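Posting this for the archive.
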Amino acid sequence: MSDAEFFFDPVCPWAWITSRWVKEVQSLRPYEVSWKFISLRIINEARGYGPNSQYEQIHNVGLRSLRVASAARAHGGNPAVDAFYSRLGNAIHKEGNREMLVGSPTEFISRVLSEAGLPADLASALDETTHDDLIRHETETALERTGRDVGTPIITFSPNTPQAASLFGPVVSRIPRGDEAVKLWDAVVTIAGSGVAEIKRSLRAAPQFD
């Protein structure tokens, strides 16, 4: 049983930063994290996109990347999803290769898979819509836990227990490290279980991926 479930769309930079915070906490405490899927493309179906929307383009490729993550899970379970998301996130956020993901997804994802220690032919899942039912189900599960007026990431703490609590975020502009990471984790767990509906302020800085 996992200690937390982390719902991500790989193209969201804020989810990526939060996921690296979770990985930092994992390196300091014995937490098991289950990596789950939430699609910004599916979330925005009802809202729609404006003409020539750059968000629609990147959200579409996010859904296609989640299909590959689903294929990776079928191949190697949760560790394979972790490895794929870690390498893909580094490639598109930290290394700045988002345009390659959009422009040459099969070539790019094949390389990412190989670098993650996974079979490159899993890239064929980019166009396999058979994965969409699972992605849609996990997206809906996440939104049922938090309400629908949110984005990514969503974290569930202590899933499948009476203490289970979920929230959107935290959205942070840089990756907390060391003691700061653990203190934030404890604070967020407390807030998630407290019944607080919203704590918010405007973003203060651009995303920092280091």
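The chain is about 50% helix and 10% strand. The CA atoms of residues 181 and 187 lie 10 Å apart.
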